[in-house]
Amino acid sequence: MKKIMLLLALFISAVSFSQIHNPVKWSTSVVAVSETKYDLVVQATIEGGWHLYSQSVPEDGPIPTAFTFPKNSAYELVGKVSEGTGKTVNDPVFNMKIKFFENKATFKQRINVVSKKAFKITGEVEFMVCNDANCLPPTYVDLNFQIPETAGIAVIKEEEKVEKEAVEITAEKTAIDTLVKEEVAVDSTAKAEVNANTVEKVVPETTQKSTDRSLLAIFIIAFFSGFAALLTPCVFPMIPMTVSFFTKQSKTRAKGIKNAIIYGLSIVIIYVLLGSIVSAVFGADALNALSTNVWFNVIFFLLLIVFAVSFLGAFEIMLPNSWANKVDTKADKGGLIGIFFMALALAIVSFSCTGPIVGTLLVQAAAGGNQVGPIVGMLGFSLALAIPFALFAAFPGWLNSLPKSGGWLNTVKVVLGFLELALAFKFLSNADLVLQLHLLEREVFLAIWIAIFGTLAFYLFGKIQLPHDSPLTHISVGRLSLGLLTLTFTIYMIPGLWGAPLNLISAFPPAQHYSESPYGVGSSQGGTSTSATPEIPEGAHLMAPHNIIAFTDYDLGMAYAKKVNKPVMLDFTGYACVNCRKMEQQVWPKEQILSILKNEVVLISLYVDDKRPLPAGEEIESKLRPGKKLKYVGQKWSEFQTIKYKANAQPFYVLIDNEGENLLDPVGYTPDAEEYHKWLKIGVANFKK
User: Would you say the C-alpha torsion 510, 514, 520, 522 has a positive or negative sign?
Assistant: First the structure.
């Protein structure tokens, strides 16, 4: 039994460590529209978790899907290839709106048939797919269509034709599998090489786990937002008034507690109903599309500015008084219905304080396209409002320990106003990133936030007063602590103008490359003086902002490694690779890792989606697709990775000596800096043996 379990474990390990991804299957069919017009239908079946990019992608974005149909006297192309609706999101890496497809995608090219004889069309599709952990290099697949004789042909329903004539195009996968089998079966030394070139399979987190975490985050943020709303002058004074009402009007203490609990539950029901209505009316997809829409972001920026100005004391935002009067009339009826309408009255009366917070929460909760996000957000928010009423009703003596209403409540409201003001510029930044206007680059964004939070610090220290503030004779310990915390945060942001990564707020300002200078204000080269700039070997360049010497050509990099007698780190990457950028921005800058990359290895970054044509005379025939020639530099590196290392996902890192032999097993996406550092240290140590 133990031997069987051991063999099973070894088998699973072998499968996990050697992985050729082929997440898209293509099928073709021909649909008759009339006697002379046909639709060439191409359907992509996409594995779960992967997505295929649209034909239309903004400049400097990922590789789009592209179709090629050869010229032929037997037919004429009518218009361009059409495609389905797909899904459009604001990609955080490319800072642009990008359309892609999940699960299935259908493309159609209409043709006008000139010849009456049957003939065959062989087209080609170039495409790129990504998931949460990997991006695969651009891939080419042949598409075959059989056009029948046109005489007397009947129009066939598209659905029946697609099902009847679908022919899966699996030539590429077959070629890869055959090639791998041939290499493994060459001889025993080849087997050893395969074992030396194994790759750790990167298993992306499941959608369910990711969703659970995002919902938990929404709940926590909403709960604390509700607690903040509780401390505003619109809500806080209602606690002792409402609890006293229930305890005095009820014949017994138990009855008072029961009514207060029902009151709290009514508050929860009202806000959860609000979240449910938003989800039902708009739907997750619509809300997600709105959150990435330029005009929506601009409008919400203006709306948050209005909310912020209101919180700062310029004016009050209130619902019509007639609404509150009608609800009060219903509340006088008593019973469960009366208690519910009392809770509704609280929601209406406190709208000037809770409305801006609730509106912001609903948008943020739905921004990820999660259908239940707004509901979970309103649940967390309402619980923070409702719990105090139930607790103080159960223990009315606690009311004596509550601080008295006063100027501090207005201070809370003003602080929320500053936070709304800061958040407003995040929405404006989203619009700027989508349009690539470069009006709100990283330095400008940080300067605005520094000004906002710096002013807030001065306000908390009593140096600035606003219209509704009470005279400040002294500063409380709580206010002083909050002021010091705000001032610390303000000072923390200042180095960001000079290139500091600011990891604590990395989700808010634009990326480091979206700036006037990727090295920071006042620096022309890597944040250091020119004299400290390392000498750049021929064929290499400096990777900003950390000045890592890197090659993009394998031969030049290997020649340099032999010259300086250092090991080589092959970095199979891509311009459109999300997790490649995460590694470069969050893992590589760690001091111990950066030291190795700059001093102990030669870095060769091979971009598998490099669309530069191969130089004249260097075109080579594809080993994976016999009869086809490689067109681009990226195809060359992609085939090299697939054939040599039996993997085609990026990022993918290989440590080799300067003769090309592996020093240890390659790795993929490794966000754990300690684990990645350990891998580098072992490889360098093996080279020195």
Answer: negative
DSSP classification of residue 120: E
* pLDDT higher than threshold 80 for residue 678: yes
How far is residue 3 from each of residues 6, 8, 673, measured CA to CA in Å?
Answer: 5, 9, 36
| The pair of three-digit structure tokens given for residue 17, joined into one six-digit string | 């460590």
* pLDDT (0 to 100) of residue 248: 65
Instruction: Look up residue 347 and give its two tokens.
Output: 């929601």
- Whether 571 has a pLDDT exceeding 90, the answer reads yes
Q: Pairing mode, if any, of strands 568-573 and 652-656?
A: antiparallel
Other beta carbons less than 10 A from residue 405's beta carbon: 13
Instruction: Record the tokens describing residue 491, joined without a space.
Output: 């000072």
CA–CA distances in Å: residue 263 to residues 233, 251, 394, 537, 689: 20, 17, 13, 73, 74
On whether the pTM is more than 0.70, the answer is no
46 with 102: CB under 8 angstroms? yes
Q: In what order do the strands lie in the sheet with 167-169?
A: 75-83, 104-113, 37-46, 24-32, 167-169
**CB of 273 within 8 A of CB of 379?**
no
pLDDT higher than threshold 50 for residue 203: no
Secondary structure percentages of the chain, helix, strand, coil, to 5: 50, 15, 35
Model confidence pLDDT, tens digit, residues 376-425: 888 888 888 888 877 776 677 777 776 666 667 778 888 888 988 998 89
Rounded to an integer, what distance in angstroms lies between the CA atom of residue 484 and that of residue 135? 44
Angle between helices 351-366 and 253-291 (to 10 degrees): 50
